[in-house]
């Protein structure tokens, strides 16, 4: 507390001064700050409300879950009848997972097999209209397999999932083909629009119309397929026979696949017809567009076949690994049953020994054994119910987690496809579009497969964690019941505490020995399962190789047949034959892919039907085992009667199973043969239509060219007559001009052959070098992958079987890579050779046409004909329809050529001395140097100007598209 002189009312003299001091006083009172108290109170309310909000929700959820479990347990307790005295054999009938397949959580309603992709709500957009298209094959996984009550039911579930995956693969590949056909068609039409051959408006409208037509076609097929499926499922006879229903569903799928293929082929022809009618392009331009479209679709079919084979290998590997898990689960359940039986038998033997020693009465022994068995049975029953409830909740959680992960992946992949579609507008090559989109889809399929495998592993891990938790609970319960038994034993008998302890130790030793033996057997079991996995994968690879060989043989037979057909058809040109062979190769690749998909689907359907029958046989065998366990509680006559009835049913079901297997295999072969014949028949019809169209076009072009050659030949004869007769030029000069022309033509042919051989040799060397480089790259990549896989297997502690399996896979990958490389390089070599032949033939025809024009020009120039005589000669040469228009064009071109020839030969019109003319062989573009003609020299065209020069219309060139009528 601070005071001063003024506050104390003291007075001092002028020479005095005041010294301020501070005095601290102790006080018992607290000074209250009302603002601080109010702020602390409000802050406490806010923090308390937040903590309450965060904590009350999990408490309420746990309370609701506990209440639901109590209600379900009460309902289950009321449904189970009490057993008076349990028998030890009943322990074997207790399953680790007494899961009810009809439970709301365990069961799952099966949707339509051919239903289009379903739209599910986006997990991140609750309350909004966000929808994600997700294939139903991605929504099912290992959790559905593990939820089955026995091995055969698991096999049926796995077959159904594989079948759904195959149907999804067919749907995905059809959509890929449709999308890429639209992209390629749009690209080709836009290129024509850049050249002013079609308008931008036509290109846009035609592509939109084509896209809408294809979409309507697909929706129509899907809608009809779903309606037919619904009719089959509602059929009373088929609903009682699942095998017959499955057979009809497979026939339905095959029939609609063939129908869809035929509609697509017909629509491709409709695209060609519509372009000819409405685009304004010539037929040759339309044929060029369709030929490029066909080439890209052929390339796509080859890529689809490779992707299809890859997905088939992935499915086979997944099935083999899943079967390994299911078999492991069955073995673990058997071990658990053996352990439970051993638990009871070991205690009975120990108590029986005390009866023999006189320490325990027979009645006391029976009571103690009955008490122990009953308590354990109650324990196992309660654990089984608890396991069933927890597994149902866990499986539902895993299904939701799978659905959420697949939705997130589907969203990401949809965005990738949208970005690629946007980038394709700036693509400079149609091949890049096809390759890029196919690679994108292949990568996305691989991502889906990796995510599915990871989720399957998580499902198995969750099941293992739950099993370990329940195993610990079971061990604790068994320990408690054993201790209760020891207490009861000590209270009702004369056995001392030390004897009870001894019995306990002996029992524990017996169970530890049993556990050690099971551990050794488990290691041997794991080794057997690993070897079985290796054998299954090897068998799958062998089956794939056999199927591939069968398809190659079929393609080779069809190729040889086509070669014979084309060889016997002499009306077709080599270009037309090449076009037919390319179309045939594309059709055979598409046919091979279709047959492989159909065979995969029908094989899975066969497995599913046989597994359904095996499941019924397993149920009968289980009933027989249960009957044997209850043999002591039943009348002997009733037991024998029931046992004989079950044996009769089992024998009848076994016979039906074998008959069904043989019939199904025969039906599978018949369906595949029928589908192959139908596909080949459709392919023959398409090739027949193509051959007919090419023959008609070839005949039309041949007639036009023959008419053109006839016109030029008659004109040449008229000029020769005028040269030798009308104007007095000696016959030797005309012969000299003709001889010069023949020498030039022969020289052109020789140069063409030399150039062809040189270019082919250069291409072969370049392809050989390229193949060697590719082989080195492939081997380097495979070595790196092998080293990486080997290190990964070593880190996981893989055994010899895994390393041998890895080595086998690497060899198969190397062999497939080398085969694909050989096919690719051979195709590239043939493509280069074909390109060389086409270029040389085009160049030769152009040079021959130029020499023919030069011949006519020289003859006309040296003849010194008047304009009237020149027109008379042209009129005499040109005959037929549209002759007046053609004659005027020929006369005009001939006059222009005469002027150029006179100038180049330094001649004047009407000169009399032609004996001193120097006729020398004209050099051609196939030779190096300058082009010399009639003593004058012209420099050879530069490569850069070749394209521009070829666009110029040469003199006397007949426009075969100008006249609509072909005069035949």
From TrEMBL:
GO terms for biological process: smoothened signaling pathway. Residues 959-968 have a biased composition (Basic and acidic residues). Residues 207-234, 283-317, 456-535, 574-784 form a coiled coil. Residues 99-127, 923-968 are annotated as: Disordered. It is a single-pass membrane protein. Residues 105-120, 939-954 have a biased composition (Basic residues). Keywords: Cell membrane, Cell projection, Coiled coil, Cytoplasm, Cytoskeleton, Membrane, Transmembrane, Transmembrane helix. This is Uncharacterized protein. The keyword Ubl conjugation does not apply. PANTHER family: EVC COMPLEX MEMBER EVC (PTHR16795:SF13), LIMBIN/ELLIS-VAN CREVELD PROTEIN (PTHR16795). The chain crosses the membrane at residues 35-60. One of its GO terms (cellular component) is ciliary membrane. It comes from the Eukaryota. It is found in: Cell membrane; Cytoplasm, Cytoskeleton, Cilium basal body. InterPro entries: Limbin/EVC.
